[in-house]
């Protein structure tokens, strides 16, 4: 009898405790959110949106401080800071995650996605989630994908209108074997470098060219040091919003929910904003003096063929399964 009473009281106390806790399960926290592009870029605008949304949903308790221009380090440095628990969050390229989860190289294989609609369906669907979940064992939590976009080529030497024109161009690529193999196979001399070192490498002539979406070419003012733009759309590049797992594990369920909700709202904002910006970017780049070349379909087909060994190598070195899964997911999205 006494025992039954005691356990009823205990249960009641527990219930009260749980309700009281859940009503205030948002602590006051500072979240350092780093990224590589300037504040005045699609990445910077979305970071600001994310911070505002987080503040709104948490009554100002989750305070996100944004640090653009690689102020907290390059993408790879920030990934390591997240893993070590020295930084809470970041957004950056998926391509530089290959040192942590090799399968991420699959997004870098050229000419996979036909358009951003396909990319959204695959990234936001089970394929994108499954790949993100592989990060957890390595100390990172993936929240959402944002759009970096279809990548295009720029250089300071000469117009690139056909594959032979790649020859002799020292081309900065992301630190990722698929990119190195792909551009070497086109005849360029691929130089892997962190994004944070790219502008000065072009300025000093350490490299002649680079490849990025037109939004970045515009916001990072690459037109100041690059004369020739070639529309190649060779890879659709996602960005990924990451959290430190050791930090994320300390969050309450409510905090995680709010974080995810704000990240998704920022994703939707970012994709819309990036797509609008990319429609205007080519004209803006022309007005800054860039010479724009459209690569004809037959040249694109040649590049695709030339890049095949890079894709085969990725598959042969353990990537076959994830590549097949991605191809199936894209086929489904069509
Ligand atoms: C690159 C990427 C960049 C990202 C960004 C700084 O070329 O396209 O957009 O790394 O987060 O490195």
UniProtKB/TrEMBL annotation:
Protein name (database record)? ABC transporter substrate-binding protein
One GO BP on record is: transmembrane transport
* Organism per entry: Pleomorphomonas diazotrophica
Which InterPro entries would you find in this protein's record?
DctP_fam, TRAP_DctP, TRAP_DctP_sf
What keywords are annotated for this sequence in UniProt? Answer: Signal
rRNA processing is among the record's keywords: no
Q: CDD domains, per this entry?
A: PBP2_TRAP_YiaO_like
Its signal peptide is 1-23
Signal keyword on record = yes
Q: Name one GO molecular function term.
A: carbohydrate binding
Task: Name the domain of life.
Answer: Bacteria
Q: An example Gene Ontology cellular component term from the record? A: outer membrane-bounded periplasmic space
